[in-house]
Design goal:
The structure holds two protein chains of two kinds. By secondary structure, chain A is mainly alpha-helical. Chain A has eight helices and two strands, in the order H-H-H-E-E-H-H-H-H-H. Classes of the chains: A mainly alpha, B alpha/beta.
Chain lengths: 252, 244
């Protein structure tokens, strides 16, 4: 269910320190999210394409990853141009598409693709354990890091428990429909899932105690501090700051 | 054989019942595991075998009775936390035990908690994986492994802490004959004491010296019971028949 298709690779990005990758992706994505200029947004998109190229992501995989986003964007392109007030570009019957609406949709499209590409190139290219250790080194509280790692580890277990329960129900002739019996069955399934998840959480914690866990999390990952890290960090910070400044000057 | 050996785990008159239940899962139970002991336990479902192991590890607090591990009385959580790394408990469900993203991370979890350095931990973990013949799984993602692989990885994770005694909770449950053979081989090559719970007589017979049972919250040692198997011939041939 959770595939780390991008995590195994040997591109220059894969060798970079997770801490630096997290910092750069956070900085670039926040800057891109706050950007309010179409040309600058294009700049961020260009940077994200470069990063994706640098991480050797294949077009096919990237499109597969972005598919859910495309559906969201289709919704935006349908609703925003028609509901925004402003200069009308074209009208048909009662539908009127406005210029500000189209502009906003375009900005959202560029920015969201850019942000997802940045994350695909920098974050999705590391195994979850490295992400955990990177966050740990960035002084993110241990509890949060644990929550992330445990979610990753157990979501598949919980899903398989759910499918097992659902299969058991189906084998006994359960056909989902819009009736009280179906709702009740799903409520039982959900309830049972919570019960099992909490029991499992207890057993996992016990297993951790048995192996000397003392509320402190250690990791094995080691990314040698190469000069590439500094160059990457420097160049990306410069580009990001440059784009922010360019937009600032534009507004002035 | 084991009478002159020091006692690793000693339970005296332990009673335990789950909250809200009046049934005593462990009732005035006593048990001694000595150095060099290879004990099997075969008992019906629900007879309290898992609870017994969890009580030894301090995961269930008994209502009464004394627990001594390596000669030290166990009273508080602090006492137990100091001995947990010296007893290796293999859980019934390996998914409970393997919580790290990759196999190496998981095997390394124990040694890292014990304070070994990164390189020492990696060396220990690789050594254990190699000994169990699963070194090629090192980078695998734990939740994508097969049931047998998960069990072996969980066992490696336990062995990586170099425990002085192993407690194995149904290690063969749900696994095929090949895996059982492999486990028999692994256990027979180990030179530490262990206590194995299983429903499979053949398996227990090949890895242990003594087989105990449990009934009504008490342990029946091999002086009191003798579990054995009879080979017999049927005059009914292949036709279905009922045993009396």
């Amino acid at each position: 269910m959770l595939e780390n298709t991008f995590a195994s690779g040997s591109s220059p990005v894969h060798g970079l320190n997770p801490k630096i990758r997290i910092l750069v992706s956070l900085f670039l994505s926040i800057a891109a999210a706050l950007c309010d200029n179409l040309i600058i947004a294009l700049g961020y998109l260009f940077v994200s394409f470069c990063l994706a190229g640098l991480a050797h992501l294949t077009v096919k995989q990237v499109i597969k990853r972005l598919k859910p986003l495309f559906w969201f964007l289709v919704m935006i392109w349908i609703f925003l141009p028609l509901t925004f007030r402003g200069e009308i570009v074209f009208e048909y019957w009662i539908f009127m598409a406005t210029w500000p609406g189209i502009l906003l949709s375009a900005k959202i499209t560029l920015k969201s693709i850019a942000i997802l590409l940045i994350f695909s190139a920098l974050i999705a290219t590391m195994p979850i354990a490295s992400l955990g250790s990177g966050l740990h080194r960035l002084k993110v509280p241990d509890k949060m890091v644990f929550l992330l790692l445990m979610t990753y580890r157990y979501i598949a277990v919980i899903q398989s428990e759910y499918t097992r329960l659902l299969r058991a129900a189906k084998f006994r002739g359960f056909k989902p429909g819009t009736n009280l019996h179906s709702y009740k069955t799903y409520a039982f399934l959900a309830g049972m899932l919570f019960v099992r998840a909490s029991l499992r959480a207890r057993r996992v914690y016990q297993a951790m105690l048995c192996r000397g866990f003392k509320e402190k999390f250690h990791t094995l990952d080691l990314y040698p501090p190469t000069i590439l890290n500094f160059i990457f960090f420097g160049v990306m910070t410069l580009i990001g700051t440059g784009l922010v400044l360019a937009e600032w000057i534009w507004i002035q | 054989m084991s009478t002159e050996q020091p006692c690793i785990i000693k339970l005296e008159n332990i009673s335990f019942s789950y909250p809200g239940s009046r049934i005593k899962v462990l009732d005035d139970l006593s048990l001694e595991i000595k150095k060099g002991d290879k004990i099997g336990m075969m008992a019906p479902n629900g007879s309290g075998k898992t609870t017994l192991l969890h009580t030894i590890m301090g995961l269930c607090a008994p209502e009464k009775g004394n627990i001594a591990v390596f000669g030290n009385p166990m009273q508080s959580e602090k006492d137990f936390s100091s001995i947990r790394s010296r007893i290796g408990l293999l859980f019934q469900d390996s998914d409970d035990q393997l919580f790290c993203p990759t196999v190496l991370d998981d095997v390394a979890f124990g040694p890292l908690n014990l304070g070994y350095s990164r390189q020492q931990t990696i060396d220990i973990s690789r050594e254990v994986l190699k000994n169990l013949g699963i070194e090629e799984l090192e980078k695998s993602v734990t939740h994508q492994l097969s049931g047998g692989q998960k069990r072996l990885v969980a066992l490696s994770a336990v062995l990586a802490m170099s425990p002085e005694v192993l407690l194995l909770d149904e290690p063969t449950a749900g696994l095929d004959t090949n895996f059982k053979q492999k486990l028999i081989q692994i256990l027979n090559e180990l030179d530490i004491s262990y206590f194995v719970i299983s429903h499979e007589f053949d398996f227990l017979n090949s890895v242990t010296d003594r087989i105990f049972s449990m009934e009504k919250g008490k342990i029946l040692t091999d002086d009191e019971i003798h579990i054995h198997r009879h080979e017999h011939v049927h005059k009914h041939g292949k036709h279905p028949h009922v045993h009396k």
